[in-house]
Design a protein that fits this description.
With 455 residues, this protein is an all-alpha fold. 74% of the residues lie in helices and 0% in strands.
Length: 455
């Protein structure tokens, strides 16, 4: 990377991050409830060094929802600079810069300097990364670790050194311990790469991919052991399993997003069942829809939530989260059996669009006031970017870069396959969006290069 490009990337990325820190600051205390859990865990870890929300409890209370990768990062920032959102947001601004450099290095290894330079600039200009970087959420840190793993993985393929495959396996586990959804990615890569890429099919390379998978499994053993010791289960995250995500996913798409959000808010703030039902019927009347399904949703929302909110003792509440997730799973499967066709249609058409083209980098408390035409234009830009990325993948295939094409495409397919059956949020795909940007940069520079040669 030239000095001029390096300076440009740093300046653009930091100014972009600074804007979103200023822009998101009003929402730090009034929105994004997910932040609360990470802030609480980070503060507790900074004070005690233990992964628990209750460091003062005479008995250790395990964490059953979140994995320790991101809270540990937050704890380090809190320990150094105090318990506040601002130092975390500033630290993540610099992580955003590092992501841009990783994107350059990855794109350079895949396609050369020109696509790499464009990809680095496009990443620095990509709003969703600094948008989430201004919040105490996992997105930016997950992206950093995952793209680092992808860079080492490409280097491993190109150098043929086993130690690079080993390091990549450990880094993929690092991404998993931040975002559990990536647990199967290294195993999927190890299985699929020899099938999809001819250069990965020889005996030595298959052994190296196996080494990556084995190391990824071994490095997850401490976390599985933690869950078994404290909760009696070999599992990635006992109460953060697929139960709730699958249950939420069975309801997603039945009503417009605004009405769904209103129903959830009503269920959260209205304890009296008669008052709750009256409010739900108002939402149904406003939307011109039957209230029956809406009533079922809010009733289940409250009933299952009571399972883990009722216990006063922290340890009993931790165990109750596991019970609640099992109940979410039971209810979800019942909903799917009742309407398999509707569930398949919603998740095969609507969910991929939500996952890949529905980022709205507008402050959470302002979104409702944004005209629909503006939101649809934002979606259109993302759809165009995705289409250009597909063209970039075809460029790699045309150039017979089969290994690189497969390695970049597989995480995108993996994220789609994992999340589409569950509750889908656009930020779930953010950690692999730099791969989309790299493919788009390859397509753009391929077209401009041909035009330059023709002229």
């Amino acid at each position: 990377m030239t000095t001029r490009l390096r300076i440009a990337v740093v300046v653009i990325a930091l100014l972009h991050a600074a804007f979103f820190i200023w822009y998101q600051r009003p929402d730090w205390e009034v929105a994004w409830s997910d932040q609360g859990g990470y802030q609480q865990l980070g503060a507790a870890m900074a004070r005690s060094g233990e992964f628990t929300r209750f460091p003062d409890s005479p008995t250790f209370i395990p964490e059953v929802i979140r994995t320790p990768g991101y809270p540990a990062f937050v704890a380090v920032i809190y320990r150094l600079f105090g318990v506040s959102t601002m130092p975390v947001a500033i630290a993540q601004a610099f992580v955003f810069v590092l992501i841009c450099f990783l994107v350059y290095a990855l794109a350079n290894r895949i396609a050369g300097q020109r696509p790499a330079a464009l990809a680095a600039i496009m990443t620095a200009l990509f709003p969703p990364l600094p948008y989430y970087g201004a919040l105490v959420l996992t997105e930016v840190w997950t992206t950093f670790v995952l793209i680092g793993a992808m860079l080492v993985c490409v280097r491993a393929m190109q150098t043929g050194r086993t130690r690079h495959f080993v390091i990549a396996g450990a880094l993929f586990s690092g991404a998993t311990i931040v975002r559990p959804a990536f647990i199967l990615l290294p195993f999927g890569l190890a299985a699929a790469m020899p099938i999809l890429a001819p250069a990965e099919r020889n005996r030595r390379r298959i052994g190296q991919w196996a080494a990556l998978a084995i190391v990824a499994g071994i490095t997850m053993v401490p976390w599985f052991t933690y869950n078994y010791v404290y909760l009696g289960r070999f599992t990635l995250s006992p109460a953060g399993g697929i139960g709730r995500g699958l249950w939420e996913g069975t309801w997603q798409g039945r009503w417009p997003g605004k009405d769904h959000n209103d129903l959830t808010h009503i269920a959260e703030v209205t304890a009296d069942r008669a008052e709750l039902d009256a409010k739900v019927r108002e939402v149904a009347a406003r939307a011109g829809m039957a209230p029956d399904g809406m009533l079922d949703y809010v009733h289940e929302w409250q009933d299952i939530r009571k399972i883990w909110e009722s216990p006063a003792d922290p340890m009993e509440r931790a165990r109750a989260r596991i019970v609640a997730d099992q109940e979410y799973l039971r209810a979800a499967l019942e909903h799917i059996r009742a309407d398999p066709g509707g569930w398949i249609v919603r998740h095969s058409i609507r969910s991929p669009l939500i996952l890949w083209i529905s980022d709205i980098p507008i402050r959470y408390t302002d979104i409702k006031d944004v005209p629909q035409i503006v939101i649809r234009l934002i979606w259109l830009v993302q759809a165009v970017l995705l289409a250009i990325a597909v063209a970039g993948l075809l460029v790699l295939l045309r150039c017979r870069r089969y290994s690189e094409a497969a390695l970049v495409a597989l995480p995108l397919l993996y994220v789609t396959g994992v999340h589409v059956p569950l509750l889908v949020e656009t930020r779930q795909s953010l950690p692999v969006k730099p791969l989309v940007i790299i493919l788009a940069a390859i397509a753009i520079t391929s077209v401009t290069s041909r035009r330059s040669e023709a002229s």
